[in-house]
Amino acid sequence: MKKMFKLSLIMLLAFSVVLAGCGKKNEDTSSSSGGSEEGGAAKSSVKVGLVTDVGGVNDKSFNQSAWEALETLKKDKGIEAQYLQSKSKEDYVPNLNKYVKGKYDLTWGIGFDLGEDMKTVAAQNPDAKLAIIDAEVDSPNVRSVTFAENEGAFLVGVVAGSMTKTNKIGFVGGSKIPVIKRFEAGFKAGVTAANPDAKVIINYTGAFDKPDQGKAAAATMYNDGVDIIFHAAGATGTGVFNEAIARNKAGQKVWVIGVDKDQSLEFGDEVTLTSMVKGVTTAVDKVTKEVIDGTFKGGHETLGLKENGVGLADTSSKNVPADVLKKVDEFKKKIIDGEIKVPEE
Fold it and tell me: Which among 66, 147, 172, 260 counts the fewest CB atoms within 10 Å?
């Protein structure tokens, strides 16, 4: 009897070990077959490369907005995404080719300056899929997304013209390229529409990656009595903010109008009057999802006020009075309805 009890006990223990081993095996198999990425998204086979202009991926502006869109898609869709920062214009072709030759499913170029080089790479690689922000590339395998910056700049011009106390307003641009000239033209028109007595002082630094030059330009303007500066200068605009922050700390109240994204989130409400946002994140998200879904097509689209491609940051009410925002909305409606044609240059 004792022998039978011991034998039964041994068999029970052995059976328990087998069950435990099977359970462990099933658990491991389930874990490895889930194919999960960060955030629990199923891993996708789509690979996307992004090439910045010389402003770099941390420009607090449109390069950063584009990369943030891909980072979100990495979490939500499980895609693989990489970026290359261009140090000079000579980097554009080799950086684009790295992703094209690497068989990436989509290669992004961010910035007007990449336009000609992307056209060259696209022609040499007709089977590759490419996309660009802020330039129009007429190639069947390239998706081009541009924005009506002049329309959004008009609205922040209305804000500046309505709120200046000195009637001196500044504009700091990077290079004199069409996209930045659209910013300037729209901004000046908006200022004049709201305040014909205000004067807009223009300074082009010639660079999108030189914060020290932006700081110097801002210092000159503030010394001349300017109290609001709108910048469209990429990372160079960081210097404009730095100068304004220093002056506010010293007791001189001055403002900066941000560009491309809500720059109050980076530089604070104390110095950021408002920001003219561009839907770069939305555009990169939309076109990349088309690659994921298999619906990608080449072509060109322009996003303006009507398409919600440009506009004021949602946080504008923190510093812009309600009556000024009402005036902005009135001008916005007139632009969308075609009553006002905003100049592009």
Answer: 147
